[in-house]
Amino acid sequence: MKIGCPREIKPQEFRVGMTPAAVTEAVARGHDVVVETGAGLGAGFTDEDYAAAGAGIAPDAASVFAAAEMIVKVKEPQAAERAMLRDGQVLFTYLHLAPDPEQTRDLLASGVTAIAYETVTDARGGLPLLAPMSEVAGRLAPQVGSWALQKANGGRGVLLGGVPGVRPANVVIIGGGVVGTAAARVAVGMGANVTVTDRSVARLSYLDDIFMGRLTTQYSSAAATADLIRTADMVIGAVLIPGAAAPKLVTRDQLSTMQPGAVLVDVAIDQGGCFETSRATTHQDPIYEVDGIVHYCVANMPGAVARTSTQALGNATLPFLLALADKGWRQAVQDDPHLRAGLSTHGGRLTSAPVGEALGLEAITPDRLLAQ
Ligand SMILES: NC(=O)C1=CN([C@@H]2O[C@H](COP(=O)(O)OP(=O)(O)OC[C@H]3O[C@@H](n4cnc5c(N)ncnc54)[C@H](O)[C@@H]3O)[C@@H](O)[C@H]2O)C=CC1
Ligand SMILES: CC(=O)C(=O)O
Ligand SMILES: [Mg+2]
Known about the structure:
Blueprint: E1 2-5, H1 20-28, E2 32-36, H2 47-53, E3 56-58, H3 61-67, E4 70-72, H4 79-82, E5 90-93, H5 101-110, E6 113-116, H6 131-148, E7 170-174, H7 178-189, E8 193-198, H8 201-211, E9 216-219, H9 222-230, E10 234-237, H10 252-255, E11 263-266, E12 287-290, E13 293-296, H11 306-327, H12 329-335, H13 337-340, E14 343-346, E15 349-350, H14 353-359, H15 366-371
Parallel strand pairs: 1-2, 1-4, 2-3, 4-5, 5-6, 7-8, 7-10, 8-9, 10-11, 11-13
Antiparallel strand pairs: 6-14, 12-13, 14-15
Helix pairs in contact: 1-2, 6-7, 11-12
The protein binds 1,4-dihydronicotinamide adenine dinucleotide, pyruvic acid and magnesium ion.
Binding site for substrate: 15, 75
Protein name: Alanine dehydrogenase
Keywords: NAD, Nucleotide-binding, Oxidoreductase
């Protein structure tokens, strides 16, 4: 198969869809890989590294999109990229369609077969292609939140760990999955007073076990959230209902109950955000204020540590990428129900029920599509 890897064009996105190591494996199995010139530079991989791995180097994105039967990317295709997709082509990347009607419309209009990293599943109920980036974003969340808490950035001027004789900051993490657990690890390590909430008692029990008393767990309810945010210095939004738009768990009215200069870090922004006042920001301009509360809502947080993230993402995507290239998308998703869970559009049809529900569009299941 001809595999194409373009340079990411989302602002300040330095990751790349394939590492030279992934290229080597694909080429060894008889596939052709074409990489856009400069695609890996942000992650520390040069054109020479890709050429040595066996890739062809293309001068621009248009040549990559024209040549490739499968496009491998990181972020959801931007409008200029969507215009280059076509029927019969496979797109393998993050999509986050539920909060994004324009992208959904364009993917359907193009006829592309789009497989979303973030809804591919594993045998233990996890999301193996989301997890590595959630590990990164979770670790970054207290780091960027503590920067936003600094006075010069609009925050309340509170040091996360406090100092002897002065209390540490209160950090509330809503959602104790991969992001929430990684955020808790770093926030606890920085000396904050951490509370994690979740709707899964089993998950809270796991967190209680592994943190051995170094954080507090709380069942997530509207009342518990209202109570916790009043005294919070930082609230990290880390909930997920796979494929669906994030539930809004803090309303605008509630901001006035919070301490002025407190910080909201909405990691769930890529699924639309879990605070009513969240809107996606970029690494260039990451924070804004609403009613005295600082919001950090960068939808591609892992792009900030592009080398680590590219390697972690590449490790996770490689087996799926090889299956798609070796077998073709239809056989690959037929053979693997976990990869099938990522199938989002094909030939102008939406194959994700949560996206259909979020956007009011008709969707059929991947199983029905394959049976036709
Ligand atoms: N902004 C960014 O750059 C990035 C964003 N993300 C996003 O972060 C979010 C979280 O991802 P993961 O941790 O991997 O998901 P996950 O599935 O591991 O964890 C989500 C947790 O939220 C819990 N939950 C669901 N509804 C809840 C509620 N009402 N209250 C409290 N908890 C609730 C679930 O029980 C689960 O434990 C996703 O939207 C993901 O796309 C992930 C990586 C990068
Ligand atoms: C998961 C995601 O949206 C990201 O890594 O950018
Ligand atoms: Mg998006």
